[in-house]
């Protein structure tokens, strides 16, 4: 994965999470309701960036 795609994915993810939290805050939904889902999404993003893409050396 190239540096520009990593920056794009990271930027779009931050923008999406920020806008989603502001929309939910507007409707009166607190962080205690959606916080665990957002933490799981952040975990998935970190896993995508850290884990290898192919496992050709293992087989």
Automatic annotation (TrEMBL):
Keywords: Membrane, Transmembrane, Transmembrane helix. The chain crosses the membrane at residues 31-51. The keyword Membrane applies. This is Uncharacterized protein. It comes from viral metagenome.
């Amino acid at each position: 994965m190239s540096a520009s795609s990593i920056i794009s994915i990271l930027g779009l993810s931050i923008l999406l999470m920020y806008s989603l939290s502001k929309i939910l805050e507007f409707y009166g939904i607190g962080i205690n309701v959606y916080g665990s889902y957002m933490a799981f999404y952040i975990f998935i993003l970190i896993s995508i960036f850290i884990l290898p893409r192919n496992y050709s050396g293992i087989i």
